[in-house]
Amino acid sequence: MIIRPLACLAVLVLSLALCANTRAADTKKPNVLFIAVVNLRDWDGYLGAKERTQDGKAKKQSKIDTDGGVSGIKFAPLDCEGDALPDYHITNYGIEQHGEKYDRPFFLAVGLHKPHMPWNVPKKYYDMFPADKIVLPPYLENDLGDFPPAGVKMANPEGDHAAILKSGRWKEAIHGYLAAIAYTDMNIGRLLDVLEKSAYKDNTIICFRSDHGWHLGEKHHWRKFALWEEATRSPLIWVVPGMTKPITGSERTVDFMTIYPTLCDLAGIAVPKHVEGKSIRPLLNDPKAEWSAPGVTTHRFKSHTVRTEDWRLIRSANGDEEFYDEKANPNEWKKLATDPKYAEQKAKLAKMLPDHDHADIGGADGKGAENSGDGKKAEKKRLKKEAKYM
What pLDDT does 26 receive? Predict the structure, then answer.
């Protein structure tokens, strides 16, 4: 059974059919295949500045759509094959590792960049989605009318969304997003197919995660950089031989702080003292098991959201709050933060907010690692390299 994802940055505990019915020997520690969709070079950058094809030569990617998108939302079909993009060769690296012999358990991390922008992928992946079938996401024109100031600032309605509306290309942008996801699905499928045929299939834990969700115009907002459902909802998929069952999901809310302790738990490794998360092993055993922890997401210094199965509380650094009933109002259109009827429930979630804060990595308040210091330089370098191939 697959259940609609629910939570903050790690909503779905989904078991695939791969390896599900095979129990690993209790005396043998498992291998780990960790697949991450990220835009940090720590994970997807082993190719470094080369970004070459197998013959060592850079392969030029020709755009069919020459304008490349709208404002900062970049998308275009490419006149090339899938192996012209770096993600294809990152996947090849992961595939090659399954042909090696190991005398101890391995941890293999494979980081893919797409569907991070630009959504420039071969045209065949655009063709999988007929343009006349593209639909807009749920959207309320006056959604921001009763927002607190911090919420309006977070939405930034005069930014990407205003540009998209002016261009008349909203559906085209969504088309690009879908195509980029399809391209990544292809690469992940290639990797899992090889694992299934390898000597390691019966004793390899798979953990797949994407780093965040994405707004496509909901709440007049695009990209991540927000604390609402669309930005904080993201896949978290586990396959644990002998434990998880095919095509199952959980309604429980978790976050990515659970990954580290869960991997330690499954591998029989002691959890370091500095780790704050909680192992979700009970949910892997039984998706309906009792679970009291919420999903917590932070965006910028001292701005957090707490998500339970039924409710979401957002508290910004300036004290502004938003409160939503997720069962009755999944699009988060009805604001309840100032309604006294919900004061008691809101207070319960407030107790789940982080009790300590750290300044953003790499910079002052409000500046994340990608926007300051070495992080800013690395991001500019990455964008410059990608521009060479467009």
Answer: 39
